[in-house]
UniProtKB/TrEMBL annotation:
UniProt pathway annotation: Purine metabolism; ppGpp biosynthesis; ppGpp from GTP: step 1/2
GO terms assigned for molecular function: kinase activity
Gene Ontology annotations of biological process type: guanosine tetraphosphate biosynthetic process
TM annotation in the entry: none
The protein's name in its UniProt record: GTP pyrophosphokinase family protein
PANTHER family assigned to the protein according to its UniProt record, in alphabetical order: GTP PYROPHOSPHOKINASE YJBM
Domain of life: Bacteria
Organism in which the protein naturally occurs: Candidatus Pseudoramibacter fermentans
Domain RelA/SpoT: 51-178
Amino acid sequence: MNIKNQSNSTIYGPYQVHLNDILNELMGRLNTASEAYREKTGEALFEHLNGRVKNEASMIDKCERRQLPATPYSALHELTDAIGIRVVTTFRDDIDRVIHIIESFDDCEIVERKDYIHHVKPNGYRSYHLILSMETPYEDVCGSVPGHYFVEIQLRTIAMDTWASLEHQVSYKKNIDPKRAELLSQELKRCADELASCDISMQTIRNLIREKE
């Protein structure tokens, strides 16, 4: 297929046809790894995962905020989250297990790590982010074959994910009185710390159960 002859009507240009295939391939591998882990241990590797290709309006908005032209090169080379996967685990140590599995993928190179679990954001946000460069059979925006596409993976526990969902809802509220906004920020930070403490307690309980087995 000559990709240069394909439609160029979106910010992803002719490369858009490959993005869902790449997403589904990587999610399929993670699901397969989870099933293998369950068969071996009787436990789930993660609670659930979901993925998305960032919609065009969101990508254009991000390009504008970064003062980048709204082009396929910006969306797929300058920025790294056109393809995104979120893995939600039950326990904190499962995050390390999923990372280890991702590290074993021969065609994926981890080009960036952001550990917001040990280096918590000021607002209380906790998560572990990976940026992968995945080798694919498709031509990429730089004209290379095999091509490389970025994938952002966020890993977090159920507690971290619950907090992030709440914070996301609050952050999009408009016309909030400044004093109330400050109170909300303080309460969100307090909730984040309490949920982090629960994560540690749940991990301790799991470890104690395993010691008895």
